[in-house]
Amino acid sequence: MSKPSEADAYWKATLGLLAKVLVVWFLVSYGAGILFVEQLDKFSIGGYPLGFWFAQQGSIYVFIALIFYYAKKMNDIDREFDVHED
Fold it and tell me: What UniProt keywords are attached to this protein's entry (predicted)?
């Protein structure tokens, strides 16, 4: 990655991935746990309202999945721009 345009493309890809992950994080943490709780509580998982489940457990599962997704996609971006570590 020697040209400035490649560096700009790498930065743009990295920020795009970060924006996607943060949007999902926001929707799950703030949206499912606070904003949309009334609509989600119409459904249940294991006898608990879905809004409560997301606020207590579901968001943790989504956050862990986001960590793995981010790591995989960031490795793909690094390989695409030949800045990977291995």
Answer: Membrane, Transmembrane, Transmembrane helix
45: left (phi over 0), alpha (psi -120 to 50) or beta: beta
CB atoms within 10 A of CB 66: 16
- Which residues are CB-neighbours of 27 under 8 A, at least 6 positions away? none
Q: Which two tokens stand for residue 14?
A: 């990295």
Model pTM greater than 0.85? no
Nearby residues of 11 by Cβ (< 8 Å), 6 or more positions away = none
User: 3-25 pLDDT, tens per residue?
Assistant: 679 999 999 999 999 999 999 99
Read off the DSSP letter of residue 33. Answer: I
For the chain, where are the alpha helices, taking DSSP H only?
4-26, 37-40, 50-53, 59-80
Strand partners, 44: 49
